[in-house]
Amino acid sequence: SEPSPPALPERQTRRVLLTNAPRTAFEAGNTPPTHTHTPPPPHTAKLEGWGGGELSSRTPAPAALNPWDVMLCVSGTAIACENALVVAIICYSPALRTPMFVLVGSLATADLLAGLGLILNFVFQYVIRSETVSLLTVGFLVASFAASVSSLLAITVDRYLSLYNALTYYSERTVLCVHTMLAGAWGVSLCLGLLPVLGWNCLRDRAACSVVRPLTKSNVTLLSASFFLVFLIMLHLYVEICKIVCRHAHQIALQQHFLTASHYVATKKGVSTLAIILGTFGASWLPFAIYCVVGDPDYPSVYTYATLLPATYNSMINPIIYAYRNQEIQRSMWVLFCGCFQAKVPFRSRSPSDV
What we know:
With about 350 residues, this protein is mostly helical. The protein has helices at about 10-20, 65-90, 100-125, 130-165, 170-195, 215-255, 260-295, 300-325, 325-340; strands at about 45-50, 55. The chain contains 9 helices and 2 strands, in the order αββαααααααα.
C-alpha cells in the first residue's frame, strides 16, 4: 500500500477550503432573488386632442407629427397672410370706411384670427400640452370661425338691403344697422367660443365627447344647427337677390323697348357669381357640419381632419371673393405697395350689390 500524504496543519487546511469554495452565489449555480423598486407612476391629468390622442398636463410624451396637423398649420398660415393684407389695406385707406368695407374688414379680421388659431393649435399641440391651453385654443378657433360665418351672413344681408332699399341705403340708418349686426355677430361668436372654456367640454366625461375633442356632442350639435340656420338664411337672401337683379334687368329692358345682349350677360354673370359664392360656402362647411352631427367619436380621426380641412379653405377663399375683386381695394393695394396710382386705369365705385 502507498503511503498516505502527510497531514496539513489546521491553518493551511482552512486556507485550501476557502480557496476552492465558490466566490459568489452565481458561481455555485444559485441565483439570488432580485429586489427592484418600481416607483409608482405620477398622477397626470389626461386630455384628448383634436385627433383623439391623449395629452398629459405634467409629463407629456413626445407626440408624433401628424401630417393632417401640418396641413392645417399650412392652411392657417396662408389664411393669416391673405387676410392680414386685407385688414392692413382697409385700415391704411381712409376712403374705405363705408358700411360695405366695414363688413369686409370684419370678415377679414375673423378669418385672420382663425388662421392664427390654427397656427397656435399646431404649436400648442406639439410644444405645450395642457388642459388650459387646449381649451383656450379650441374656444379661440370656435369663436373665430363663428365670427367668419356671421360676417358672411351680415354681408349677405347688406347686399340684399342695398338692392331692396336702394334709395335709402346710403344713410345714417344703414351705418347703425351695420354696426348693430356686427356687434351681435361678434357677441354671439364670443359666447360660443367661451362655452368649452367655461365647462361645456368632455374632459371629465369621455362618453360625452364628439368627433371634435374636447367639445361635447351637444356643443357641436348646437354649432352645426347654427350653421344650418345661417346657410338657409343666406340661401333665401341670395334667391331674393337673384329675383331683384332679374326684375331690374327686365325693367331696364322695358324702358329701352328691347333686351340688349349686355343686360343679359350682366344678369347671367351676377347670378353665376352668386351661385359660386353660395356654392363655395356650402361645399366648404356642409361636410364638416353634417359629420359633426352624424359622426361617432369612435370613428377614425382621419374623417374629422378630412372634413375640417376643406372648411378652413373657405377662410382662404373669402378675401379673393369679397376683397381682392373689389376695384377700390385693388387701387388701395396699388397705392400701398407702389406709392403711386396710374390714372389711366379706370376705377368705378362699387356698391354692395355689385357681385
